[in-house]
Amino acid sequence: MANIKEIYSAQVIQKRIAELGKEISADYQQLEKPVVIGVMKGALCFLADLVRNISTADPLQIEFVRLASYGGATESSGTVQTPYLDLPNIRNRNILVVEDIIDSGRTGRFFLDYLRDQFKPKTLRMAVFLDKPSRRVVDCQPDYTGFKINDLFVVGYGLDYAENYRELPFLGELQNGGEAG
Ligand code: IMP
Ligand code: MG
Q: How far apart, in Å, do the first and last CA atoms of the chain sit?
């Protein structure tokens, strides 16, 4: 296995998500029928933990899409692919997008623009587990952020390197570009 240095433990992550859940619960208390859209695959752990920390007057509807901008490498390809973009009619709803990480901002920007255009949401916000502000290429500001991190390539808690390591319960930095050692 490649060398992976822990950045945030499972416990630290859970504590932060409990805080985010409280904040989102308060903000969405008065909003009718909120829809949470998870961006697969990276948001899998974050979404599962976050929704269990949200409590609102109206129950949540949960949907998924799958977007991809990375190939197998640690650099974004620059174009956003949409392997699965099948959403029900969520016109005029209160939408919360849940993403693993905002890096260049291309995926987030693309998806927010798409949703605004297709569904004219009443409100549209984005919650991200991680933000790498120093890497931004296009404008994209998350409304809720788990952690801001420096320009590191991270894996675990849903995030992958070439489809590996999503299952790790902690967030770690991949050392030596993924070479074993
Ligand atoms: P963006 O479109 O450049 O903002 O990239 C967003 C996508 O790139 C995320 O949803 C991740 O799948 C992937 N990504 C960006 N940085 C990392 C990282 O450090 N580790 C793993 N995946 C990453
Ligand atoms: Mg990925």
A: 8
